[in-house]
Structure formats: C-alpha cells, structure tokens
Amino acid sequence: MKTWVADSRRFSYLNWKQVEALPKQETLLILPTAAIEQHGHHLPLATDTLINNLLLGKALAKLPAEAPVYALEPICYGKSNEHLGFPGTLSVSASTFMQVVRDIGVSVAQAGFRKLAIYNTHGGNSSLVDVLARDLRADFGLRTFALYGSGGARYDGVSAQERTYGLHAGEIETAFLLSAAPELVDASAYTVNYIADVEKPETLLPENAAATFAWLTRDIAPGGVMGDPRPATAEKGARWAEQAAERIAEALEAMLRWKDPA
Ligand SMILES: [Zn+2]
C-alpha cells in the first residue's frame, strides 16, 4: 500500500530494543483505521486507506523531528457493510473491528505506552472508534484520543450541496487521489449521484439530521458514488490535503502536550 508516512515515523520499522528505549509516558502512537470498499466506477477500493496515509503522512511531516510520535500500520479493513453487494468491498463486522482495535490497545498498554490516538478516515467506523477510545481509556488506563478525516479543516471552494452530500467518492476524495495517486483514478468513468438536496430539507435524511434512516449504498446510490467527482482537480486535492494536514498536526501536537491530572 502506498504511504506518505516517512519511514522514520513508522512504528513497525523499529526493533524491540528501540521500542523499549522510547519515553513511554510522552510517546504518542497513532493507529490509523480505514476501509477497503467500493468507491464508484472511478476510484480504487483502497481510497479511504490511501487518504489516511496521505493526510497522516503530511501532518507528521509538520511535527518537529524529535517529537516522539509513531504511526502504527493501518487497519485497512473496516466496517463497510453499507457497501456490500459491490464486488471488491471487504468488510469486517463491528465486533471483529472492535476486538482487533481492542487487542492492539492491550498490546500498546502492555508495552508501557500511555498515549494512543485512533485516526479514522472511513465513516462506517466512526461510531465504533468513539466507543473504542472510551473503552480503552476505561479498561486499560490508556490516554486515548480519537481523530477523524480532515481534522476539522473546512476545505475551501466546495459547494454547499457537495459539502453536505458529497459523502463518498465525490469531489473531495477524488481530488485527493488526483493529487496523490492520479494513476489510480479513471477520470473517464465519473458518475454523479446525490442522495438528498440541501435546498429541499426532508424530515428523514440519510445523514446530518436529528432523524435519519439507516442506508445501504445499493438502496440510494446504484453506481456507488454519493457526490459529484467532476469538479475535482489535482490542484484542489493538493491544497485541501495541506489544509487537513495543518489541522491534523495541530491536533497531534495538542495530544503530545496533554497531561492527565495527577
Ligand atoms: Zn471513501
């Protein structure tokens, strides 16, 4: 899998004596979580994992070289049952996903580390990551953090419609891949599909509402796309990746500075 995470930031490239020597109280480990799932006719299955590697790699590059931060290898398989029925989607159940992350958390705690951040870039995992961060805190005393997607960056120049309903394989995800791995984008195969209209508010919506209906992609997006990839450009992708990396780096620095009350 392509990654933009520097070798010097990869936990799995250390040997155990180097791990033993790390300052355990301060070191921040990051566990990336993503997905291998359909992303329409034009983006690869690994889109969420590649975007995770890209944004995290760029954020880590902004930290001082001596900051004790390491990225664990990503958990590429996520809870993607909303995309089942499309060839190539590889999903694990909620309980499997949670057990794997929990087991990694146990290993991290047993090695003496204190700080673990879960960085998630697949929406289907988000509610599980929320639960896991709290459970790892409660059950193993880890200081856990959860970090999502853009880190709060508000990508400039995105329409209100795309910002709200460009949920999957739309302009933003396509732009990231055009900037970072254009050979994996089939720009001749774009499809466009919006699952709701910001101008026509309904009581029951698929996302971003007090009352929602649980959706499966095949119910609402037969081609697998939720959004409009057509306005995506490599230039936008590079700019938005930079905006996200700045916010993610700020979050990582805050996690590094964090001290639990004695
Ligand atoms: Zn995606």
**SS-based class:** alpha/beta
The total beta strand count reads: 4
Q: List cofactors, ions and other ligands.
A: zinc ion
> For the largest beta sheet, what order do the strands appear in spatially?
2-1-3-4
Instruction: Say what oligomer this is.
Output: single chain
Radius of gyration from CA coordinates: 19 Å
| N-end to C-end Cα span | 41 Å
Low-confidence stretches: none
Helical residue percent band: 25-40%
Strand content: 5-15%
Number of helices: 8
The general outline is globular
Summarize the helix and strand pattern as letters: HEHEHEHEHHHH
Largest sheet: 4 strands, parallel
Tell me what the structure shows:
There is one protein chain. The chain is of the alpha/beta class and 262 residues long. The protein is built from 8 helices and 4 strands, in the order αβαβαβαβαααα. Helix 4 links the parallel strand 3 and strand 4. Helix 2 crosses helix 8. 41% of the residues are buried. The model has no long low-confidence stretch (mean pLDDT 96). Bound molecules: zinc ion.
Topology, please?
Elements: H1 16-20, E1 28-33, H2 47-60, E2 69-71, H3 94-110, E3 115-120, H4 126-140, E4 143-148, H5 160-165, H6 171-180, H7 217-220, H8 234-257
Parallel strand pairs: 1-2, 1-3, 3-4
Helix pairs in contact: 2-6, 2-8, 3-4, 6-8
Zinc ion (ZN) is lined by residues 39, 47-48, 168, 173.
Q: Top keywords for this entry?
A:
four-stranded parallel β-sheet, binds zinc ion, 262 residues, alpha/beta
